[in-house]
Amino acid sequence: MSKVESVLTVENLTKVFGPVRAVDDLTFEVRPGLVTGFLGPNGAGKSTTMRMMLGLDRPTAGTATVDGRPYRELDAPLRQVGALLDASWIHPNRSARSHLRWMAASNGIPRRRVDEVLDMVGLASVAGKRAGGFSLGMKQRLGLAGAMLGDPHTLLFDEPVNGLDPEGIVWIRGFMRNLAAQGRTVLVSSHLLTEMSLTADHLVVIGQGKLIADCSVAEFTSRASSSVRVRSPQLDALHRVLAEAGLRVTPAVASDGRPVLDIADVVTDQVGDIAAHAGIVLHELTGATASLEEVFMTMTAGAVQYQGGGPAGTAAQGGPR
């Protein structure tokens, strides 16, 4: 891989399909050395944004560049940018090896690299088999091999874990983190938020084509209201002093059956200081941390395009992903 570090930049990017504003004045950067998760509800504009980054859709306004250059102007695109947007984009009658050799020939990549990437993604044993007979998970791996063919410094993956079994998901998590550790620029979209919490270092979150958040995973999850659970042999007295301090206190029962208090919108230090000042003994003082999924659902609640309507829910029609 080239030692050159790459920055993927989106500036005021906009895409309009008829009455639908799929991407709306979007601006963010994807920097090297990090796995950047690209998140948003269905219809948020993630795939459309990635297609514009690769020159597959023409922006209505704005730009998407790799180190200041549009994809279409790159001298050797497969050597600079690797992408997996659609795992089914394979001629069904070609073998995995033939498919990659065709790609390699288009960019002057040595044929030996084909077998290297097939081995890299665990497909060496089926290299001569027709790709049309592959499972979705195998097609995802072949798509990853194609993305790595030119040993690029910038990589874009759209839902790369679709069709993978648990072992495959763990493998691709390590695969993407290793790419970032090598100093590459990695952008990955996914609907598996728990997996993103284990994979991504940074998040770009969009809804209805607009930017909602551009920050680290830790910063994003810290945006949720914090809460504290406390247990004490002087629970009634503690409840009283906490309420007198203006805190919202709710009596509850822990999983072991013991009574506790849950305090909303507060941190452990604040509760501990109030108890200490009142001379109250605490046996438990724990803070609750919101998950990435919980914060995501809260932050994007107003930008969901497809709403369930109960057990027989219907979906509203919308525009591109």
Written description of the protein model:
Helix 4 packs across helix 5. The chain has 11 helices and 13 strands. With 321 residues, it is an alpha/beta fold. The strands form 3 sheets. The chain has a 6-stranded mixed beta sheet, sandwiched between helices. It has a 4-stranded antiparallel beta sheet with strand order 11-12-10-13, with helices on one face. Strands 2-1-4 form a 3-stranded antiparallel beta sheet, with helices on one face.
Q: In which range does the helix fraction lie?
A: 25-40%
Report the β-strand fraction as a percent range: 25-35%
Helix/strand order, N-terminal first? EEEHEHEHHHEHEHEEHEHEEHEH
Strand order of the largest sheet: 5-6-7-3-8-9
* Low-pLDDT stretches: 310-319
C-alpha Rg (nearest Å): 24 Å
Query: What is the number of beta strands?
Result: 13
**Individual helix count:** 11
What is the SS-derived class?
alpha/beta
Gap from first CA to last CA? 32 Å
Major sheet details:
6 strands, mixed
Multimeric organization: single chain
Mean model confidence by pLDDT: 89
Which geometry do the CA atoms define?
Answer: elongated
Could you outline the blueprint of secondary structure elements for this entry?
Elements (H helix, E strand, L loop, with lengths): L7 E10 L2 E11 L4 E5 L6 H8 L7 E6 L10 H4 E4 L11 H11 L5 H9 L15 H13 L5 E5 L7 H16 L3 E5 L3 H7 L2 E6 L2 E7 H5 L5 E5 L3 H10 L3 E6 L5 E6 L3 H10 L6 E5 L3 H8 L22
Parallel strand pairs: 3-7, 3-8, 5-6, 6-7
Antiparallel strand pairs: 1-2, 1-4, 8-9, 10-12, 10-13, 11-12
